[in-house]
Structures are given as C-alpha cells and as structure tokens.
C-alpha cells in the first residue's frame, strides 16, 4: 500500500477552497454575461480570464490534474480519475486510423499526453505508454470492427476489465469502493437513459460496465420493470442506499441531480476509511467534491432555479 498521508492532509485543507453555499447563492442572482466574472471574484478560474464557462471549467479540470500530480507521487492513482478523457482520445485516434473519421479535438484533461498516443498509433512506439493503456491498444489492434459503435464498446469494456485487475492488485480498499460504486452509478444512469428514450433493452448490455456491485445480468432483468417495481428492487434486494434518490429521479426525470446525490452517497461510503490519512479516501473525496462542483456550475448556468448539491450538503 502507498502512504498518502501528505496528499490526504493537503487536499483535506483544500476542501475549504471549494465554492460554498453562499457562493452559489450569489451566482443565482447574476446574469449569464456576469457569471464568469462573479466566479473570478471568488478566486475561481483566475488563470482563464475572458473565457466562457465551458473553457473555465475545462481549465479547472486541468488544474486539478496538475494539483494531484504535484502531491500524489503514485501516478497510477491520479490516472484513474481521468481515464474517461483518455478513452475518448484513444477512440478518436482509432476512428481516424480505421474509419478515416476525424471529428474530435484532443482532450488535454486526459492523463496520457497526445505525443505518447501519436507515437503509439503512427510509429507503433509504446515505450512511454503506461499500463493498462498499452495492453488495451495491443488487444484492440488484434480486432476488426464493422463500425465506430463496435469499436467504442470494445474499448470501454476491455479497459474496464484491465482497470479492475489493476485496482485489485493495488489492494487499495478506498479505490476499489470508488471504482465499483462509480460503475454502479454509471450503469444506473445508462439504464434510466434507455428507459427514458425507449431504446431497445436487448442492446442495453452493450452499454453496461462490468465489475460493479450489481451484476450486468441483474440490471438487464429489472431494466423493463415499472417504476414501482424498480424502486422496490433497489430498496429490498440491491443497493438500498440508492433507493431514495432513485425514487425521486423516477418522478422528476432529473438524472443530473440523481448523479449528484449518488456521488454524495459515494463520499459517505468512503468516510470510515478517510480517518486513516495513509489511505487514498481523502484524495478520492476531494476529486468527487470537485466533480460535484463542476456539475453544479454547469446546471446553475443553464437554469438558475435548479437544486444544487453544494447548497444542501
């Protein structure tokens, strides 16, 4: 196990720099034109003057990555928080290579630098490509795909398996909880999206992630149930702590708010482990709080009347 005492203590103090309930109350009152200026007055995003909110938030995500790399010597932990961006970048390289499609800009928030990926794709040079990305590319290179959707599904599911293996080997209980519960949240939101859009349920499994606490097979069984049946399944058989937020979401169809509530539940799950500063729990908590902050900002900018997690926690 890696000792995260310094990083945990440092990021624990950084929590006080997060936007507060009072900050969000002030933001409710300003116009779109003054929204970013008000954020600057709070000291948020000062390195991105004259930017849109979108660019401001992107800049804060980059700043978070830089901050984590400075205090967490184990790069592998930091990597796990930014894998979604890396997968988008890898998919973009494959889309260009296999389907001659170039429609996405490289996302700097990813952990893997553009040059490292370019060397791997253009020159077959994997020297600076860390695991599990190296294995992901080598496995993908052996496959053929009929379309971009097949490619995207294979990348996501294969990487999920590789990442799970890596986390198990790390013997980091906090990280395992974060990984599994994040997977549960993602799968629940995916299932609700399928229900809302009335998509074909027999295709649901192609979009569900493995290694959560709730098996993919169980999710498929309940995906077509009525709202009441779905709530009862979660309340009595599966993840009981998800039941109340789920019940509200089934009435309001506010999936962004559901995601925030579930992220707060994830923080609660980590609390017993946070007492041990040597663990990664406090670091993970800080990252989740920053994630909630970003979601809150985007929601509030779009609608000044929405309920925000930063105001009720």
Produce the secondary structure layout:
Elements: H1 5-14, H2 21-28, H3 32-41, H4 53-71, H5 75-80, H6 83-99, H7 114-123, H8 133-141, H9 148-170, H10 173-197, H11 216-222, H12 227-236, H13 243-252, H14 255-274, H15 281-302, H16 309-312
Helix pairs in contact: 1-15, 4-15, 6-7, 6-9, 8-9, 10-14, 12-13, 13-14, 14-15
Quick recap:
With 313 residues, the protein is mainly α.
The fraction of residues in strands falls at under 5%
Rg over alpha carbons: 20 Å
Mean pLDDT, to the nearest integer, reads: 91
Oligomer: single chain
Q: Sheet bearing the most strands, described?
A: none
* Through-space gap between termini: 31 Å
Report the strand count.
Answer: 0
Shape: globular
Structural class category: mainly alpha
Uncertain regions spanning at least 5 consecutive residues: none
Helix content: 55-70%
SSE arrangement, N to C: HHHHHHHHHHHHHHHH
Number of helices: 16
Quickly list its features.
mainly alpha, 16 helices, 313 residues, single chain, globular
Give a verbal description of the structure.
With 313 residues, this protein is mainly α. The chain has a domain at 173-278. The protein is built from 16 helices and no strands. It has helices at residues 5-14, 21-28, 32-41, 53-71, 75-80, 83-99, 114-123, 133-141, 148-170, 173-197, 216-222, 227-236, 243-252, 255-274, 281-302, 309-312. Helix 12 packs antiparallel against helix 13. The relative contact order is 0.12.
